[in-house]
Write a structure and sequence with these properties.
The protein is mainly β and 175 residues long. It contains no helices and 14 strands. The protein starts with 21 loop residues before the first strand and ends with a strand.
Length: 175
């Protein structure tokens, strides 16, 4: 590794995660003496692991576990000490050992832009924007592609399948 930095291309998980789980990582580039936080969002909750990467014994320990009925997890994204989970049972904001249920709609996509403290969540019929603190900024309809409201209009031409922020501008792209 160059200049004392290590790059991890994969992480071995020694116990099985249930189907519908997602991992999220927060922390800057790992140096031999740094630490890293890994979150495991499963259908029944969120576990936070604190990893010490010092040589020769890098190890992770579970420091917090929060029970929450996420259902199948679509995406989990860390933003500082907060984790957002987009899942079948809605959008959740987890911090300080507690998860707050922000939306009850089944989520299909999630993106976080830490530089502007904005979180975007998508579903079959809407795109929502939140601040990192969980306050809603706004929402927009997607065009209904079937049913009684077909063709009714919206900023996205169908169900949201992907969201991503451009760095550093903060422009949001929706698929």
């Amino acid at each position: 590794s160059a200049a004392g930095r290590r790059v991890f291309s994969h992480v071995a998980v020694t116990s099985a995660l249930p189907a519908g789980s997602r991992l999220t990582v927060s922390g800057s580039s790992a140096t031999p003496s740094s630490s890293l936080t890994v979150g495991a969002a499963t259908p029944t909750g969120l576990s936070e692991l604190h990893c010490e990467l010092a040589e020769p014994d890098a190890k992770c320990v579970v420091v917090a576990a929060v029970h929450a009925l996420f259902g199948e997890v679509v995406s989990a994204r860390a933003a500082g000490n907060v984790t957002f989970v987009a899942a079948a049972n809605g959008l959740f904001r987890c911090a300080g050992g507690h998860c707050t249920h922000l939306l009850e709609s089944a989520m299909t996509a999630l993106a976080v832009h830490e530089a502007t403290d904005v979180v975007a969540a998508g579903s079959r019929d809407k795109v929502w924007l939140f601040r990192i603190d969980g306050a809603m900024i706004r929402w927009e309809w997607c065009t209904a592609i079937d049913g009684p409201d077909a063709g009714s209009g919206g900023v996205v031409d169908g169900p949201v399948t992907a969201l991503e922020f451009d760095e550093p501008s903060g422009d949001l792209y929706a698929g």
